[in-house]
Fold each of these.
Amino acid sequence: MNSTEAIKQTHIALDRDLREQALLLLREVSAVDGVDALSEQFVRGLAEPGLGHTHFIVTIGGKLVGLAASDGATTELAVHPAQRRQGVGKALIDATPTESVWAHGNTDAAQALAATLRMKKTRELLVMEISGAALGEAANYSDPAGFSHSSLANAPIARAAAEEKWLQANNEAFDWHPEQGGWDIHRLHRAQKAQWYRDEDVLFLWQGEELAGFHWVKQHSADLQEIYVVGLAAAFRGQGLGDPLVRLGLHHMKNQGAQRIILYVEADNAPAFAAYEKLGFSVAERHVVYEK
Ligand SMILES: CC(C)(COP(=O)(O)OP(=O)(O)OC[C@H]1O[C@@H](n2cnc3c(N)ncnc32)[C@H](O)[C@@H]1OP(=O)(O)O)[C@@H](O)C(=O)NCCC(=O)NCCS
């Protein structure tokens, strides 16, 4: 990067002109790389001061060419496709305060930059997908013997009790997980405030009034839906119930018109990865965290 081009740092949301330039830059980056450089939350942070994100901006001749956003824990960044290999990416990474940097799509350029800066891959999140005949096959569902299913909207026990069991199963299934584990009822209720959330899309597998597992789905659109969170209660693991629990949600989504279903899974979660592969899912995207 030309040494006269300083990085500007701002602790607040971007002003309107910069925000428009940032959104344009992100669109051009997505068009070239085939993946969004900033996740939803970081795009929101460009406009919402309440999220408290810090932004780092590189301009050349008044035009925005590089942008990094940090939430204090992680950083995400993008350099305009026409302004790459001039040191802008390196300068942004040097300037940002966090150790962790997301590389959505883990493009060749991101891998090369990380290698040059001797950054280590510390987390890899995969997007897997299924569609077509494979989806038709995987969406075959019938209740395992002795089990029944419902959604949160028509659970066989009172709503508050069903939510308690859901929470417990969630925390048992994700005690190791950085974002999904250790929830309390307030966190669950906050999640239910998401604009896309519906009680009908939280599916439960019951043995009598005991919750064996839950399968929470997210509808991005009628066509595109997501296995959002699937978890088995500790007492019901090791009984082959993972497969029907996944199929329960796939069946529900297919009935709602899903043509393509995606899910996010940690690359090192070998049992989950193998189970989804066996059902016919394949890897569509890789999202990597590099550590400075
Ligand atoms: C990854 C990205 C940020 C790199 O930005 P950039 O401004 O082109 O990177 P820099 O010019 O600072 O590159 C510094 C060094 O990294 C390496 N590098 C970067 N891109 C490379 C590529 N496409 N091929 C080979 N080496 C590359 C080189 O060693 C380069 O030094 P050099 O040009 O003197 O050889 C940019 O491609 C981008 O915005 N990608 C999409 C978003 C993304 O992946 N963000 C996460 C980054 S971890």
Amino acid sequence: MLKWSSLALGIATVFLITNQEKVQAIVINGSFEDGFNWWTTTGQTTVEDSSFGVEPADINYQAVLETLQDETGINSSALEEFLELSSGDLTSLGAVEGSAIKQTITVNAGDVLTFSWNFLTDDDSGDQNYNDFAFFSLSNVNQLANTYDATILSFSDLAQQTGYQSYSYNFTTAGTYTLGFGVVDVGDTTVNSALLVDNVKLTPVPEPTTMLGILMGMGFGYAAKMRFSPQQKKAKLK
Ligand SMILES: [Ca+2]
Ligand SMILES: [Ca+2]
Ligand SMILES: [Ca+2]
């Protein structure tokens, strides 16, 4: 009886503290099985199954972002604005136009973002002036691959690919972020490249506050024991 009440108090304390401090860190529809619901898109973006010529990394569908074959694409300055980047983050890298998707996420320090990606290109000229690239963004641009990395033959409409790869990112600072994925034409607006994205996930990691909660819970439990122990002894004697 006594032990259970101490335990319940401890658990309640942990629950209260973790609930106050932690946010629910989640990417909704991160596998694109529900189209682009919960995502915002710009440029040429589609959700494709294996008939695209590449097997999705997770279940039946994957996001496909392309750099557009015509010259009416989303220019890089507009992409910077869309992804809430600083002016010049993409244009300074030679990016001319492209496509992107984004979702707002709220994370705790220690949460881990993981996703699968595959970069495809028709631009296998080996010319660094037209070195299209794919990236993901939080508050800055993180390049995933460029045309030199796409060394595997692709059976889609695009000639070369990197193949699906996994990426993992650890958040060191809690907060609300704009998570973006993009692909850009570099140097000119021609010769298509694509970024395939699938299985975007956030894995929560216990915070130090959880440990504090457990320790405080243990403290309360101990205090309760000290207070009620004599009464229990008395009850036992009766
Ligand atoms: Ca999927
Ligand atoms: Ca283009
Ligand atoms: Ca290009």
Amino acid sequence: MNGSMPTYLGMPAFPAAAKAAVADSQLRRNLTHATGTIRAKRAGAVAELDDWERLRQAAKAIKDHTLANLDAYLLRLEENVIKGGGQVHWAQDAAQANAIVAGLVRAAPADRVVKVKSMVTQEIGLNDALESGGIVATETDLAELIVQLGHDLPSHILVPAIHKNRSEIREIFRREMPDAPAGLTDDPAELAAAARRHLRHEFLHASVGISGANFAIADTGSLVVVESEGNGRMCVTLPRTLISVVGVEKVLPSWRDLEVFLALLPRSSTAERMNPYTSIWSGVTPGDGPEQFHLVLVDNGRTASLADQTGRQALRCIRCSACLNVCPVYERAGGHAYGSPYPGPIGAIISPQLRGLSSPVDSSLPFASTLCGACYEVCPVAINIPEALVHLRAKVKHNFSERTVFHLSGQVLESPRRLAAAQRLASLSRRFVGRSGRIRRLPPPLRGWTETRDAPAPPAESFRAWWQRTRESGTRERGTR
Ligand code: SF4
């Protein structure tokens, strides 16, 4: 069974959404600058390690082994969380997970929560579900706070407000943050200080914290959150009740496995040798941190995608975002066009697997790629994203015109005579060639191709015709002499 994940409200299929994004020159400037900077820094951080490829293969092997034995490791995790004084809840889908969390918050009792950035809570639409139950959730990650105050949606896994520049952020703070200083400028240090002051009050008054987890260690029942700002540390230590909402694929067998991922994740994501804050907790400890700990394990389509031998590699993902930063499609279209909290190359393979391929947006996502392979090269857990994309494309039911085009192409390519005729026909399109030597507009049904790009002019003579004219006729002439 596929899971439930709300498509971003009103979001059309990828081609239409991307078209609007590509036309936004400010967005493109913001994205090009941000992804270019992170890309260069990551390459430097990775180049420092001689054994990067070995680490990468080790991570892949650990994840594959864990996924192949997921049931056993999840039960071991549950057993050890309970031993440590925590409680474990199992959620099959988003609705169940949201209901469990809302029930726990009400039982705390509380009507406000602080949250550390968590992809799975975005996936299940937790904030909206809490709000409809009268519970206010405050995001405490700086970029998430910007997105929340701006009534916006995240557009990057690691930097959810990557589409905003600092003057846009200043305007959001001035408009939406009641305690923002009167003369707030767009200096990054001033903006961070304003957010820190605003959040401090929330941290000190919240009795419930909600987190995700980067990893869950089965052997000890420990949860691990890595982050750069310290907000995660506050969320998982200050409130009386801590609720961690975690996808089932986050489990790792043991501490030794964690070592590999703590080497790979910071370099791949923030280009740091080590992330500034690593918070690890195992159950509850009297007099130290939360008095109650709940772990909500979320399936939401994950076990269904485990059944797919090619597609399941997406469950290895550690959400580092390296694939987004190298993707030429993401850099131009931005994250919102993917219609899901998971943008970029990983989003193009994970959302259709978690949600199924039936909606226009999900069936369009596997085509949101040039298949250049840059995402596979940088992925620290060696997810072959192009392979998964092609695999998903084959599953999409093509519409009639696509089926017809592919059928006709097949007919032409399997017959040398038909191919030669098609090439002669193609050379007729030279009449559409402009002064630039390129075709800027083709008639229907090929118009779509030239709407956003031009096309090279086909040669006046195909290679096959040239070969026949110059070589084969020469050979014949020599043979008759
Ligand atoms: S697919 Fe790989 S590169 Fe992309 S976010 Fe996941 S782990 Fe990182």
